[in-house]
Amino acid sequence: MNQPYSPGHQFRISEEQRNPEIDRPSMEAILAKADRLQRAAAALPLEKRLKTIEEMGDIWRSRWKSGELTEIAERLAQNTGYSPEVIKLELAFVAEVLDPSKMLKNLDSTLRGGAESLERMVEIASDEHIRNHPSGPTLIISSGNSLVPPFIPTISSLVTGNLTILKPSLANYEAVVAVISTLEEAVKRTGATEMLDLLVVSYFAHGSPVLDYLLSNARIGVVNFWGGDPARGEVSAKVARNPNMPRYFSNGPLTGFGVVDEENANDEAAYGLALNILLYDQQLCSSPTQAAFLGSMDSAKEFCAKVAKHLEEMGSKIAMGMSDDGAFILQCGRKYAQFAGAKIFSSDDMDNMWTISLSERVSDLDEASQAYGPLAFHNRRRFLEIIRVDDVERVIDLITDLPMNNAYRGADKVQTVGLALGNMNRKAIIPLLPSTGAYRIVPIDDMFMRSALEPYDGMDMAKLFTYGVYMRDKSMGREVLR
Amino acid sequence: MVILGINEIKEKASKSKLRGNPFVEKVWDIIHDPKLFTMSADELAELRKQLMRESLAFFRDNSDYYSSLFERLDIVPEKAEKADLVKLVVPADMLRGGGQERFVIDDVDEGGEFFQSSGTTGKAPVKIYRSPLDLAIMVKANADLFEYVYGHELEENKGLALFMAAPELRNVLSFVAFVELALESKGIELLYGMSMREAEEGETFWQRLQPDKKNILRFLKSKDEPKLFFTAPAGVYLMSKRFNEMSNLKREVSKIITRAPPVNLGKGGVIVTGGGSKGFVDLPPYAEMAEGARNYFKALSRSGDGVVAPFMDVLGMTETLTALIDHHDLMGKIPHPLSEVFLVDPKTFELIDEPGKEGLICIYNPFVTTWVEAFFPGDIMMYHPSDRYYGKEFEFGRRLTVKEGWDLQRACGGTLEELMEE
Questions:
Q1: Domain presence at residue B70
Q2: B1 in a domain, yes or no?
Q3: Min distance B349 CA to chain A CA atoms (Å)
Q4: How many CB pairs under 8 A join A and B?
Q5: How far apart are alpha carbons B323 and B115 in whole angstroms?
Q6: CATH 3.40.605.10-classified regions of chain A
Q7: Do B94 and A339 touch (CB under 8 A)?
Q8: Residue B421: its pLDDT value, please?
Q9: Smallest Cβ distance to B405: which of A338, A350, A374?
Q10: Within a domain: residue B345?
């Protein structure tokens, strides 16, 4: 069973729920200590905090190498539906999130006053200072479709000194605890026991009264929700009722969009696109699900064939879980797209049923999805729609209009635009892309990869979890009034 | 709404804009070829292949949509094989609402009829246009197939038929239309066993159906031969159940008033069912239902010998011009000789050509001149080898479920079962 994990606190389990949850009195007791715990954590030197994160990464790596986590990885693969190969990759990525140098870089670039503003007042102008203080306690309702996303906000929240309540999903709960529990060993090595007191991990059911309390009543400073509707709408409504006015930021479902032109429709671009389709079977917000091809139809077909070759080769090594029902639905969906006007490239290998739907100027998948509900966005895996277009303006329209396309209903908008363009098209499209609402513009082969400096869906996590305290010694008003 | 009699259909068909087209003329001749049902399975397979190629070429040349579709699907009509048909079959769900419109050739003959599925799922029903030419082909092809399975030709102007449907359904359901038109062409009187009362607010078509006791009584009492009883399986089952549950006194009174039980179908009498078990969860298997019903339905052979009442079952749906029909005890479901019926693996859409192996049934009718009639109705079936003309006889396995992405209910006669409770 998924027991709550919070080594710094005593707690009892609620008897009302099927899955174990921390009960309300225990949660109230923990939150009552929040100010004291956050003050103590904020007093910890940043170096010590980052060293603790580094230790977590080392402990994780050694556990992974020793084979201690193999069974957890297998169960994670079963629960999430990803192939064991993807899960292996996922577990390797965990160490990236626990990289202290990247964390430091992120804090330095994100926070006014840089990373050291978490420890003390930092002068940002002559006699003007700023200190960034934890704005928590934070409640993070994390996504359940993989392992890394829960740690992105959680580690940021912990390092910035927040009492952090993390609610994983049932699918990734065991693996999340396996990673986060390395903190216990890490603080023994660094002596930063204050950080251990900041951590509370518990599952809460959808209708849990404790979750309801946390969202709508508790003295919470930040709520960070990862996921889509209808849960998102319910959570935001509850947070809006909370008299303590927590900050609320939701990381909704987003998707990726590739842009390729004839000049760059080479094997490298095809490989990059295929790689990003196969990683997590398009379940990342950065995964390309639609792409535009600038060039002739014949060139588009040639490019599709190149992508198909890589999907075939790489995909056969990363088996996807496909049920009999799912396969039939996919076959019907392909037909709907074909008869609506698309040219379909596909595989019938049950372990690697990839699909490329090629259309001319308009999305045939739009019509197909409207006619055939099971072809919906969230049901598609390894399924890319490529639309041949004449100019970058049409590309911009496709990216902007994606939320209105039936085939992508469920995605808020495009998060990541992956480019493989020649100079002329690149120059033409770059000034236009920011207005599409997309958050990231990266090379097509690198859509999944994040830099330490990147905001998450337009938001710097460290900023979300802190507030800036401004200080000045000299009066400015006297000068103005004089 | 256009409702055509058999003579009007024939007249309009003879004036079709498509007459004179070599492919259409060939179809017309073959459909009327008396040797069709005597050809070998191999001869027919070759004939269907040729017809398929010519049909696809016809549609390519008469429709921009098909020209573009074939290009996308890498289909060259002149070289088409059965594997290309797998590419062309569409889910029957795709034909809901105006789904067929894009498939209809550019210069289609007007003045035909529309048929539709029951619409009991609450979604837009499947709606199919049949040109006069296709209607003429439908009547001829189905009548020939019916007579083959029935065992002999229906004699003209002889006998009486009862269809447990309302006459208004003639304009909606292709199965009802085919039966009415085929019987009309033979001069056999058809009685409808149901009528449709005035609509109350919010009522569907189907909720307005009620038994037409007068017609049912007339059929039961009639001494005409043969008597042809068209119904859904549940109709026979519920009728038999009612006879079974009658007290001795009631039974005697019923015999005096209706001459039943048993229902005497007379020489050449037959029960024709259609629509499967839709709407009934407790309907016994077909064989069991037929056996039970034979206590209350009696028939004689054409020569007058006592025989067990013959049961024929029609697997028909709105989307297909011709049905598959079986003869209980004698043969499994058999398609028209020109109809290409095949099974595919629902996961991969690879052709299945192995007796006894279940697959998704697909139907392609190369003799339809309005659209490429290639679809799958959502039934899992299998076949066994046969000495008859088709070389195969099909057995029904199961219906695909909503979980499998299938919304469409069985059409035609299936809907009628819902009315059989009265």
A1: yes
A2: no
A3: 8
A4: 56
A5: 15
A6: 24-252+457-471
A7: yes
A8: 39
A9: A374
A10: yes
CB of A342 closer than 8 Å to CB of A384: no
Q: Which residue of A has its CA nearest to B124?
A: A371
C-alpha distance from B124 to closest chain A C-alpha (Å) = 11
In whole numbers, what is the pLDDT of chain B averaged over residues? Answer: 88
Task: Name every residue in A having a CB less than 8 A away from some CB of B.
Answer: 324-325, 327-329, 331-332, 335-336, 338-339, 341-344, 348, 350, 371-372, 374
Inter-chain contact B347–A327, Cβ cutoff 8 Å?
yes
Which of B68, B90, B346 has the CB atom closest to A335's CB atom?
B90
Closest-CA distance of chain A to residue B60, Å: 15
- Tell me the average pLDDT across B230-256: 86
Please give the ipTM for the structure prediction: 0.89
| Residues spanned by the domain of B20 | 6-419
> SS3 of B362, please?
strand
From chain B, pick out residues whose CB is under 8 angstroms from the CB of A328.
Answer: 346-347, 360, 400, 404-405
- Report the distance separating Cα B75 and Cα B64, nearest Å: 14
- Is the peptide bond preceding residue A137 cis, with omega within 30 degrees of 0? yes
In a domain, B235, yes or no: yes
CA of B123 to nearest chain A CA: how many angstroms apart? 11
Interface test with B, best of A328, A329, A356 (most B CBs within 10 A): A328
Dig out the tokens for A44 from the structure: 């910890």
Whether pLDDT at B412 is above 60: no
Q: Please answer yes or no on whether B404 and A350 come within 8 Å at the CB atom.
A: no
The mean per-residue pLDDT over the stretch B297-324 comes to: 89
Closest CA to B163 of B31, B17, B289, B275: B275
* pLDDT score of B415: 37
- pLDDT (tens digit per residue) in B98-146: 899 999 998 899 999 998 887 666 678 889 999 999 999 999 999 999 9
Query: In Å, how far is B348's CA from the nearest CA of chain A?
Result: 5
d(CA B205, CA B279): 16
pLDDT of B54 reads 97
Please state the domain count of chain B: 1
Helical packing angle, A84-97 and A70-80, nearest 10°: 110
Please compute the mean of the pLDDT values over residues B316-327 and round it to a whole number.
92
Residues of chain A with CATH 3.40.309.10: 254-446
Cβ atoms A386, A359 nearer than 8 A: yes
Class of domain A24-252+457-471: alpha beta
Of B94, B349, B403, the CB nearest to A331: B349
CA–CA distance, B168 with A383 (Å, rounded to integer): 46
Residue A90: predicted pLDDT:
82
| Averaged pLDDT, groups of 10, chain A, 482 residues long | 89 85 94 94 93 93 86 83 82 85 93 94 93 94 82 92 94 88 94 94 91 95 92 94 95 95 96 94 90 98 98 92 88 96 96 96 96 91 97 97 96 96 96 96 94 88 95 85 78
Give the pLDDT band of residue B277 (cuts 50, 70, 90). Answer: low
Q: Cβ(A109)–Cβ(A102) under 8 Å?
A: no
Structure token digits, residue A212: 């309801």
The structural architecture, per CATH, of the domain A254-446 is: 3-Layer(aba) Sandwich (3.40)
Which among B333, B263, B330, B331 is positioned nearest to B296, based on CA atoms? B263
- In this complex, do A339 and B348 lie within 8 Å of one another by their Cβ atoms? no
